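Format notes (please read before filing issues)

Several people have asked whether sequences and structure tokens are stored in separate files. They are not. Every record keeps both together, in the order shown below: the sequence lines, then the token lines. Line labels are part of the format and must not be stripped during preprocessing.
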Amino acid sequence: MSSTKEKRKTPRVKKRGTRRRRQTSIYLLLWAVFSVLSLFIVLLFVISQQVLLNRTYKTEAAQELNEKSTRIEHTILNPPPYFVGRRSELLQYLSNENDVQIFILDDEGKVLFPHGVGFDEDQTGAGIPLDFSDEISVLKNKLETQKTALYEGDGEFVYGSKISLYEDSQEYLYISKSLHLVQTVTETMRVRAVSTSAFVFVLAFAVSSAVSGWLTRPITEMGKKARQLARGDFDVDFYGDYSEEMVELADALNFARDELSKTDKMQKELLANVSHDFKTPLTMIKAYASMIIEISGDNPEKRNKHAQVIVDEADRLASLVGDLLDLSKIRSGINALKLSLVDMSAYTEEILGRFAYLQETQGYQIVTDIQAGLNAYVDEVKIGQALYNLIGNAVNYTGEDKRVYVSLQQIEPDVFRFSVRDTGKGIKQEELSTIWDRYYRSAETHKRPVKGTGLGLSIVKTVLEKHRFVFGVDSEYGKGSTFYVDFPLVSDETEKIQPNA
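Then the structure lines:
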């Protein structure tokens, strides 16, 4: 029962490489954003235009009415000689001239003008039955605190004031200006704005679609080219008629293509070289095993000699497999560095001791210049492997004099350098960037007294990069090569400070 529960609790892990859920395309996102933005701008324009237009027209209408009404009131109180005793004609003239409606009201809202009886014979008259009671009430309220009033009524602007046309009488001047024109113009502009907005939106819709397509076209093209690259087409070119940012992306993708091409080439060479290196000892093992069975099985001396060849070739296979595993582990980080304080002077002497047999049996000379007391925090096993490979590489490639020069000297207050120099053919400038590759081999013929798998310098590079040490090679073609590694010197003051791996 508990087992079932544990299974239910186990989270489902998404398999690597599983296709992710399809997301909305960039084209649609850009198109949607541009379209919505255009719609928002158009709506904002229409709304703001309507509000501002209506407010502007009303403000101008109110200002115009105020100016005209002030002049009209002054003319009524001070009529020209021609209109003396003819107020009705004067008011009608002023109404027509200024395109406004003029009313003279009494205190109760009765209309004295127009059509007031006896208006020009200095008597109030009976007026006509128009109900201005509401208007006069509003006007009186506004005139309680001011001499004149200007306000918006029902579909009109109104100007009002108290005037005295007769002795001991009080009348009200009521001038109105219809807002019908303002409303008509506003409505017309609203219709035009909506039509224009619809056109602009359709245009923005089309333009955003075109722009989105133009912006996403390079990405689509690069996606197709990337799939070509994934299928192994290393001739694909990511350049095109793109913007500056996309050109930078094309540069990066072309660089990645070149590096992948190099890696692919290296992998093919690695497979070919490993296959060759495996095939040779396996062939030897099979051949000598057959010889033992068929020829030397009863001859102890020949049998032992043939068996020793099998053992040597098996050791060679084991060495090749070991180097491949070491390189894989170091690069993948499985084997983390185990740093400790190491006397590199004594350790270098110990590594050099492994090459003593070459000096004794094959006449090689290893000239050393080792400064004593140089300490560093290193992974002793891995650094030992790197230094052994560097010295072995120099032995394999040195010249006819069979001389190799090994040095370990302090070059700065906090740095000391290990270097190994051979007197061989050197390395061509065009090959300097590839010597650290797996299975790099110089085109020059050379003897190989030190057994190797062709992975030596690649292991050296990986170990030193893990340590974050400075290393390199100086070479002049025809005069030999010098490989070097710079170690951080651990002095007495820093000896107790253990660095992080």
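For reference, the curators noted about this record: The mean pLDDT is 79. The CA atoms of residues 129 and 193 lie 44 Å apart.
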